Amino acid sequence: MNPHELTLAAAATEIRERRLSPVELVDSVLDRIGRVDPQVRAYVTVAAEQARSAARDAEREAARGVFRGPLHGVPVGIKDLIDVAGMPTTASSRVRAGHRATTDSTVAARLRAAGAVLVGKTHTHEFAYGLTTPQTANAWHSGRVAGGSSGGSAVAVAAGAATFALGTDTGGSIRVPAALNGVVGLKPTYGLVPRHGVTPLSWSLDHVGPITRTVEDAALVLAALAGHDPRDPASLDIPAVDHRPEREPDLSGVRVGVPSTYFFDHIDPQVAAAVHHAIAQLEALGTRLVEVDIPMTRYIQATQWGLMVPEASAYHERTLRTAPELYQADVRILLEAGELMSAGDHLRAQRARTLIRGAWTRLLQEVDVIAAPTVPMTAVPAAQESVTWPDGTVESVSDAYVRLSAPANITGLPALSVPAGHDTAGLPIGMQLIGRPLDERTLLRTGHAYERTRPARALAPAA
């Protein structure tokens, strides 16, 4: 096995036991980037020399017996909304031409302190305002969408061009590309991971989290990222918790909610079948399945857009007026639409969010996690703009991809996407687990236990 094929946990063990040098691991990942990135275009920029220098530093520390933890010497790709000192933060937009960050974001600083090695900045849908990341190709099929907005991060991890990556999630932007590329995506509880130094899309919905090859890897990254930062007004000041799942987790007695409404409506039959099979696996592991009704479903889409759209437009107000031509057409239209929304619309969306949160709080008193599809369909062809469901309903691709992930953003609940097989075209399918606030431990334990029932996943062909 080549070093770039290792999971984070496996690489950490090899480095700690001195069987693998961080230099060897980083060189292997950089070589992989050189071979696959011309096809998938996951990276905005690759910091090869900087990465090699950091790897040599990590190796010298390891030689002295200094080991900073499981991220020590491990290559990471960071979504290009996240500031890294001395590097541009382009947000994959012409608006940011010439920009260069002067300081690290909180999460970049924490990764640096943990010994992780930045290999590059990954593409996002422009300013994270979309669900496809059009400049990046799916790791499993070059003619299909990567998903978004953290498409570059998900593709890099799926293709072996990063051992792990960071993304952001406002309406599903970690979980959607993770599902479409066959990797793990974790959106933590709102406020658990600070967002200082991260370009916002919608301040009341934005999250930062890891994209990894395994659930165990996601837990290791979360441990390095979580913790209070007063520079983020939403950051939670709570005691540190070890979220890592047991090596052989016991799911006896865990109550898994299986939605009878919403999550299995307007969904591809192959996705539904794969997720139901995964839920059956959870039951075989000792969980108790409980049928649940998802509350207030008719308000989810309106609430998501009613919060996100005006908040995004407020952030871009000045640039939208002075240089609208620098935005891609799809993003500019959304930003202009946001300026037409009234304060009353935004306030009604906030009131609806309060009611939805309360309803989900009551729901999660009945179950420990909810299991559902991450997205209603696998990766669509890059030129496809809409999907027509069997009952004649026509839905835009973006609306379809955000539909099942938005509830966890509106409520701020932690949500995890785990690979759950492939369709007949060989495209990945994801199962989403949603848990109680700050109960990432149960979420990760459940996902890890399910993952252990499946064969080890190979890297995507990246072609």
From TrEMBL:
InterPro entries: Amidase, Amidase_CS, Amidase_dom, AS_sf. Residues 24-444 form the Amidase domain. Signal peptide: none annotated. It holds the Pfam family Amidase. This is Amidase. It comes from Streptomyces pactum.
